[in-house]
Design a protein that fits this description.
four-stranded antiparallel beta sheet, 11 strands, alpha+beta, single chain
Length: 186
């Protein structure tokens, strides 16, 4: 027997009256009045929000509140609205391993360790053979840049913040390179 599940909607926590999320992973911007330039009100029409996929394969949408746009992972919005979390677990797991399947029945609250164990069980973790350093598809820096960054930091009186500007990467990237959290193999 085929059971047809109907799409249901709930307010997104902290965005009540502005956005709703469905149990199927859709995001709705609700019709409302908003303050426009010049101090006048305008009607914001109801619409289904668009998405994009981040570098890790998760579906993201931008939510605006008080003129501030924040990018949110859709699976987290679905879980927050529809799945009780009595043990206050911080992570959300895609049961089938597909990061784009944000149906509520495919999501569950987990600990980071449970999430890693599940990904490992499904064969989604392959750190040993993953490209590293400049061979990684997401790398901005080259091996020679990393060596230069470490040399500059050790021999010159230049801060991590200044080095980050020199190489056009974040402070965090520089911090992780210098402390060998990333680029360990060099």
């Amino acid at each position: 027997m085929n059971i047809i599940k109907l799409e249901s909607w709930k307010d997104i926590p902290n965005y009540e009256g502005i956005y709703k999320v469905s149990n199927c992973g859709a995001i709705l911007s609700v019709q409302r009045q908003a303050l426009a330039k010049g101090g006048k009100f305008r009607i914001v029409p109801e619409k289904i929000m668009s998405f994009y996929t981040d570098q890790y394969g998760y579906i993201i949408t931008g939510l605006c509140k008080n003129s501030l746009v924040k990018n949110k992972k859709v699976h987290r919005l679905v879980a927050l609205a529809f799945i009780p979390n009595p043990h206050n677990k911080p992570s959300i797991n895609h049961k089938d391993g597909n990061k784009t399947n944000n149906y509520v029945d495919n999501l569950e609250w987990v600990t980071p360790q449970e999430n890693t164990d599940h990904a490992n069980h499904l064969g989604l973790l392959n750190f040993i053979n993953a490209p590293k350093g400049e061979n990684s598809g997401s790398s901005i820096l080259k091996n020679k840049d990393v060596l230069q960054i470490r040399d500059i930091y050790l021999t010159k009186n230049i801060s991590k913040k200044e080095i980050s500007k020199l190489f056009n990467v974040s402070y965090t990237a520089i911090y992780k390179i210098i402390n060998r959290i990333t680029w360990k193999h060099i």
